Amino acid sequence: MDAHHIDHIDEAKTAIAAGSRFWRHAQAPCNLGHCDPASASATGVGSCGDKIRIDLCVENHTIAQIRCKPEGCVYTVACSSAMSVLAKGRTIDEALQLQPEDVVRELDGLPDDHLHCARLAVNTLGEAIAEYYRRQLTP
Q1: I need a labelling partner for 105 at 20 to 30 A (CA). Which of 17, 20, 120, 133 fits?
Q2: SS3 66
Q3: 70 within 8 A of 77, measured Cβ to Cβ
């Protein structure tokens, strides 16, 4: 864990209640790693420089597995985890309906200056889904 990540953990502790779902996602993120083989993958880079890589394993037009590799602050880690929990088990079309506000609700809130982390998670999911569709159209 780098110094940047540790600084943001201290900052987050003062901003968000310790018992919240945010802390569960931040301290024990869900769905970390890679799918092998992945049906599609995407990497998104946020305005702050944080990154999220998402791998999707799609079966019968449903996200059977989703794996994330967040790189950045604790907010990006928590948003990536929350988004993956919300997307897993949904059809591709249902997953495309996820909004940053859904991630914020799953986390019991985010400070306004870190809402971009929820957008990064949802936008990267959308990019992975777009890649899935491209792969379906390519013979």
Answers
A1: 133
A2: strand
A3: yes
pLDDT in tens, 75-88: 999 999 999 999 99
Paired residues of 67 in beta bridges: 55
Q: Are strands 62-71 and 51-59 parallel, antiparallel or unpaired?
A: antiparallel
Angle, in degrees to the nearest 10, between helices 3-15 and 74-87:
70
How distant is the alpha carbon of residue 114 from its chain centre?
Answer: 14
Is the separation of the CB atoms in 68 and 78 below 8 Å? Answer: no
- Asked if residues 86 and 63 have their Cβ atoms less than 8 Å apart, the reply is no
Strands of the 51-59 sheet, one edge to the other: 40-45, 51-59, 62-71
Q: Are 31 and 84 in contact (CB under 8 A)?
A: yes
Cα gap 84→100, rounded to integer Å: 12
Instruction: Give me the residues paired with residue 41 across strands.
Output: 55
Which residue is it, tokens 């997953």? 95
The vertex-34 CA angle with 51 and 97, nearest 5°, equals 65
Q: Among 102, 101, 98, 107, which Cα is nearest to 125's?
A: 98
